[in-house]
Amino acid sequence: MINGCNAATKAGLRTFAASVRHEVAGKRIGVTTLLPGAVRTPFFEHRGLAYDRRFPRPLAPAKAATALLWAVERGDPEVFVPRWLAVAARVQGAAPELFHRLAQRFG
What we know:
Blueprint: H1 2-23, E1 33-36, H2 43-47, H3 61-74, E2 78-81, H4 85-94, H5 96-106
Parallel strand pairs: 1-2
């Protein structure tokens, strides 16, 4: 259930950011959403389960922060780190059933 809650929270925040982005359009206010993979933080230690996947490897926090800063400077609405995660997001949006089957198989 924890993974489902995390996924639902991330989806809700992404939708909220998109809504705010549309509300402030034309007012010189930017809204950028960072969509990272696993980030090397104490999160996994605190939850009591180590991150044991071989792929994807956790990102350095500085890499995620740098990607966010660059995206904010460019005015990008969203930034995926690593970038290949954008492909998964597009598949999820275009073919949700295929995405869920792949997610079940590959995690």
